[in-house]
Specification:
Blueprint: H1 2-19, E1 21-28, E2 44-47, E3 52-55, E4 61-67, E5 70-77, E6 81-82, E7 85-91, E8 100-106, E9 123-126, E10 129-130, H2 142-146, H3 149-169, H4 173-191, H5 198-207
Parallel strand pairs: 1-9
Antiparallel strand pairs: 1-4, 2-3, 2-5, 5-7, 6-10, 7-8
Membrane topology: Single-pass membrane protein
Family: Belongs to the EMC7 family.
Pfam families: EMC7_beta-sandw
Length: about 230
Amino acid sequence: MANTLSWLVVLLLTVVGAYGYRIQGKLITNNVIPDLTAVSPSTRVLVNGGRWYTWIHDDGSFQIDNVPEGNWLVEVESKDYVFPKIQLQIQSTASGDQPTILAMPLIPGQEWSSDGKVVKHPLELAAVAKMVFFTPREGFNLLGMLTSPYILMMGFTLVMLFVMPKLQANMDPESAEEWEEEKSRMQKQIGNLQAPDVAASLASWMTGSPGGSTSKPPSKRSSNKNK
């Protein structure tokens, strides 16, 4: 009788090893999903991108059978919410007891390793964010309008119109005279910015030389008449 039971245990373990193990879990509520009725019926739980998959029950629970030993990626496929991805390690024990199932959150960009934070199995998955496909149109933003480059340029111009006369009034006569000469020279150079001598005027303005062309007109040749 004892031998028969031993063979039955061995046979049972062989069948379990051939067909794999069961992954269980459920979705839980939080501030993102206060009620599980908001979860779409099309929501699925995938293992390794759909090699194994199942749909979510009404109470948020799920289970996937016949998953063999190894490292697997468990993720929730939802069109409305974002769920964390789980790295799952299934390892059989030497004594033939229940397998060791190690579950850890998978952080994007992090290497696939067993050094992360361990979560319990059966899994409890809570949504981390709601899917947003459209950006709502912004309303009137007074701060955004005031920080616009055009408004800043207009404000700077108005400030200069009111501030510059006061600065000129406080200047000593010599500085005021130099300022007037510089302003007159700049206005004259701006007035000379006409085709086809735009390049020469710009060069003159940047170098600080007097405006206008510096080339001298050709001198007339004097012809000697034979007497």
